[in-house]
Amino acid sequence: MYTLTTKFKVFAIIIMVLGAVMTGVGFLQAPADQAAVEQMLAEEGAHGDSHGSSHNDSESHDNSGKENTMYNADESQLETGYITSNSTQESESTHAITPHDAEDHSGSHAEHLYHQLANRPWAAVYVACFFFFMIGLGVLAFNAVQKVAQAGWSPVLFRVMEGVSSYILPGGIIMFLLLLVTGLGLNHIFTWMEPGIDDPTSEAYDHIVAGKSSYLNVPFWLIRAGIFIVGWNLYRWNLRKFSLNQDENPEGNVWYKKAFKHSAMFLVFFIVTESIMSWDWILSFDPHWFSTLFAWYVLASMLVSAVTVIALVTIFLKGKGYLEYVNDSHIHDLAKFMFGFSIFWTYLWFSQFMLIWYSNIPEEVTYFVSRIEDYNLLFFGMVAINFLFPLLILMNSDFKRVNWFVVTTGIFILIGHYLDIYVMVMPATVGESWFLGLPEIGALLFFGGLFLLYVFNTISKAPLLAKGDPFIGESKHFHY
Q1: What pLDDT shows up at residue 82?
Q2: Which residue, 418, 434, 317, is CA-closest to 373?
């Protein structure tokens, strides 16, 4: 059995504490109100800093660029894809710009910037929380696929998969609490939750969001999240119980057959709930945008990150003298999945991007315009990382058997898919006010430390070999 050392526990706790402190500082650095932002802009202007004007210039350039791309549409049309009555009246009325207009514009800019800066630490926590949760969930789904396929190569890795997937319990609880405080109005990272957005008499009224309010409303949104998290954890708990019981009672494979049936039912439940989860927790950050490939896109990111973590944990334990029956062929197969899912992710990314960009329909392409203009380096950088590293390193069959090649590629894959989630969330929450600083690094450290502590603690609770599995003999002698 694996023993969780004191040194490892201390390391995980230290990075958790460090991450919590950095995240807390990020929250304290966020402006308390709009007046604080106005004062900040005034001070920067007084010191000759062009920060405030550059924001105005970038905002003007942003709108101008979008107008040229989107059939010369006005700003409200870009946001919704339709021309509302208010926008039509505004476009028809022309008047000279007065000092009062300039003051209103300055105030609206300060308000806009305040919301972005206030959202930033919340969004950073959300990205890190979801990233590690999706890894645990992806490993759970991958484990279920192995059970249903009755795979002969993977049983020696089942305890690793059970350990990594166990994170969805604490990760799911934290994720639900984060969704709950968001639904209660303690932050404003989801625009569709704004008060009055579905009220035609309100200035905040949005007819597209209002049309989705029967589905996209806080109570129903939280109920769905609760059902998903409970369902996923219930299957994980049963699968772990069945696996341990099978070790104690290998005759007749009763517990193995139960695991098979439960896994088959879970995969049906998972493919439906994962799709809805990706719409609820990620896509709804941009409630005006839609993509028929989005759920698959999130699934691909989830699976490649999950298999990568399985490979990294396996190599770590193997290096410590555990997992004696894991050989180069098992690592080779994990690396093949890393390579295959990376190519699958790239295919989905290109299909989604190319079709939307080529059609150039305003309500669709605006999603990519904002990311290309404000997140250009991250947006295309994460594509290069997630595609080129697996392609160039793992295409060679021999390299798939070399641990340090797999580890190096795996680290870049995880960095790339963290940035993928980051680019999916941040443009709709913080806009052009993004920065990889204290809250982002702090949240990553906190959830990373929690992930390591919980996963390896679970791994230490049971023998690393699922000796009762009927395919364990085949897995022990697996060679490719």
Answers
A1: 34
A2: 434
Separation of alpha carbons 301 and 306, rounded Å: 8
Chain mean position to CA 107? 33
- Phi-psi region at 156: left, alpha or beta (left = phi > 0; alpha = psi -120 to 50): alpha
**How is residue 306 written in tokens?**
């999950």
Mapping DSSP to helix (H, G, I), strand (E, B) and coil, where does residue 469 land?
coil
Mean pLDDT lowest among 60-64, 148-152, 235-239: 60-64
Average pLDDT over residues 53-60: 44
Residue 419 amino acid letter: L
Question: Under 8 Å CB-to-CB from 245, ≥6 apart: which residues?
Answer: 255
Q: What is the pLDDT of residue 76?
A: 37
Contact between residue 23 and residue 124 where contact means Cβ atoms under 8 Å apart: yes
Q: Could you tell me which residue, 143 or 55, shows the higher pLDDT?
A: 143
Closest by CA position to 305, among listed 129, 137, 426:
137
- Sequence-distant (6+) residues with CB within 8 A of 375 are 423, 426, 427, 434
CA–CA separation, 238 and 228 (whole Å)? 16
Query: Does the pLDDT value for residue 81 go beyond 50?
Result: no
Question: Do 304 and 417 touch, CB atoms closer than 8 A?
Answer: yes
Helix, strand, coil percentages in the chain from 3-state DSSP, rounded to 5? 75, 0, 25
Among candidate residues 242, 61, 232, 231, the one with its CA nearest the CA of residue 133: 232
Q: CA–CA separation, 154 vs 472, rounded Å?
A: 8
Out of 75-79, 228-232, 269-273, 420-424, which region has the weakest mean confidence (pLDDT)? 75-79
216: how many CB neighbours lie within 10 A of its CB? 20
**What's the DSSP call for residue 395?**
T
Q: HSE (CB half, 13 Å, CA atoms) of 274?
A: 26
- At 378 the pLDDT is 93
Cα angle value 248/253/258 (rounded, 5°): 100
Q: Which of 269, 304, 268, 259 is nearest to 158 (CA)?
A: 259
3 state DSSP class of 185: coil
Q: Render pLDDT for 290-311 as a digit per residue (tens, 0 to 9).
A: 898 999 999 999 999 999 999 9
- Helix (H) or strand (E) segment spanning residue 361: none
Most confidently modeled of 40-44, 70-74, 450-454?
450-454
